[in-house]
Amino acid sequence: MRDSALWLLGLAPLVFATGCASSGAVNAALKSDLGTLRQSIREEQRTGALDQSRAKKIARAVAEREVYAGTGPGAVARIRSLRACSSPVLPALEARAERQDEAAAEAALVLLAAHELSPEALASRYEDADSGAWRAVAARASVAPERFARRRRYYVDPDQRVRRGALEAAVEAPASLDEAALLEAARLDPDAMCRSLATRAVGAIGGEHAVRSLVDLWDRADEDDRFNLVEAFGDRRAFKTGGEGELLRIADSEHGVPAVAARGELARLDETRAAAMTNLLARDITDGSADEQELAIQMAPLTGPVVPALKTRVHDADPTVRVAALERLLELPAERAQALAALRTEAKTDTTGAARAALARAHDASVEPALVKELAAPGWQERRDAGVSLISLGDYTHAATLLADDDANVRVAIACSMLESS
Q1: What confidence tier does 249 reach under pLDDT thresholds 50, 70, 90?
Q2: Are 248 and 264 in contact, with CB atoms under 8 Å apart?
Q3: I need a labelling partner for 264 at 20 to 30 A (CA). Which of 102, 107, 303, 334 fits?
Q4: Distance (Å, rounded) from C-alpha 193 to C-alpha 167?
Q5: How confident is the model at residue 22 (pLDDT cuts 50, 70, 90)?
Q6: 20: burial class by Cβ within 10 Å (0-12, 13-18, 19+)?
Q7: CATH 1.25.10.10 domain extents, the chain
Q8: In Å, how far are 43, 338, 353 from 383, measured between CA atoms?
C-alpha cells in the first residue's frame, strides 16, 4: 500500500471526529500550511470559536501531520517525544511505521512501548537488519523467553539505539539469565541511558544475588549511576531481598543526592522507617546543597518537621529552591494563600519561568497575562514552556497560538501537552 493511502487511513478517524470542522485550522494543520493555520487560529481566537475541544482537534491534526510528514533526525526526536500522548495519534504512527526510514523505526518503537504492535513479528523481521534503527526495533520487541538469548547479544551491539531497545525490553520482561550481561552493561556501557536501563533491569530481576551484585557497583559509580542504583534497590523485586537494607545503609551513611533519594524511597516504601526518614529529609531541606534541597523538597512527605523546614527555604538565595519550597507549601490549605502571594512576587523578577510555571500548575490566573506575552519570546524553549503553563491553567485558546509556531519542536510539544491533558 502506498504511503499516501496509509496516511489517508490514519487520517480517517480524525476526519470522522471533526466532521465539517476538518476545514479551516484543522485542514491547514494536516497540510502543514503554517501561514493558513496561523491565520485560522487567530480568526477562531477572535470569534471565540477556539475552545478546549477545538484546540485539541487542531492539536491532533498537528501531531499527526508531524508524525507522518517529518524526515531526518529532527523527525525521529519529535516522534519519540510523542510517547506520552501516543494514543490519540495511533493511526498516524501506524501509517508512519510502514515506511522504512529511521523515523518509521522510531514510530514502531513508540507503538511497541504502547503495546500496540505484535513484538514477535518485529523481532523476527528485523533481528539481522543492517539498519541500527530497525535492529533497535527488533531488540525492543525481544520480550518473549525464546528471544532472550538473542537479546543478550543486543546488549553489546555497536549502535546505542539497539542497546537501549534491548535494555528497555529487559526492564519490561526481566530474565534471571540476563543478570551477568546486564551488570556488565551497567558497569561499562558508554551511554548513561544504557547504564541506567541496565541497572533498573537488574533491580527488576531481584533476588539476593542481584542485589549483592548491584552493591558491588556502588564504589566505582558516579553520582548519576548511584542515583540509578537507589532506584534499582527500591524496585519491589529487589526491595525485600536486600534492597531495603542497602537503602537504609545509603540513607544513614552516604552523602549527596543519592542519599537523599534513598531516604525518600524509604519514606515512601517502609512505614516503620517513614518518621526517621522524614526527619532526615527535613534536615536535607535545611542544610543540604541546592541539588539535595530540591530533591528533598520534592520527595519529603508533608508531615512532622518538613513544613517548618520548607518555611526556612522560602527566602533561600537560590531561586529554584525558593520556588520548589513555595510550591510544596501550596499543598497545605493553611499555607496556600501566603505561598501564592510569595510566588506572585517571585514571578515579577523570575528569569527562569519556574515561579510562573508553579503558579500555572496551581491554577492561579494572575500569571496568565505574563504567559501570553511569553508566547512571542525569541527562544523556542521559552515559548514552549509558556504554552505548557497556559495549558495547565486551562487556557487552550491562547496556547493554541503555538500550534502554528515556526519551530516544529514547539508545535509537537504543545500538541502533545494538549492531547494528554484532561
Answers
A1: very high
A2: no
A3: 334
A4: 10
A5: low
A6: exposed
A7: 148-254
A8: 21, 29, 11
Handedness of CA 406, 383, 373, 38 (dihedral sign): positive
> What is the domain class of 148-254 according to CATH?
mainly alpha
Say if residue 3's pLDDT is above 80: no
Which ranges in 206-364 belong to alpha helices (H)?
A: 208-217, 223-233, 236-238, 244-253, 257-269, 274-287, 290-299, 306-311, 319-329, 333-349, 354-361
- CB 26, CB 15: distance < 8 Å: no
Which residue reads 504502547 in cell numbers?
A: 114
322-331 pLDDT, tens digit each: 999 999 999 9
What is the mean pLDDT of the segment spanning 13-19? 39
- Residues recorded for the chain: 422
Q: Which candidate, 292, 268, 296, places its Cα nearest to that of 281?
A: 296
Of the pLDDT bands very low, low, confident and very high (cuts 50, 70, 90), residue 27 is: confident
Q: Which long-range contacts (CB under 8 A, 24 or more apart) does 319-322 make?
A: 319/346, 319/350, 319/352, 319/354, 319/355, 320/290, 320/294, 320/352, 320/354, 321/290, 321/293, 321/294, 321/297, 322/346
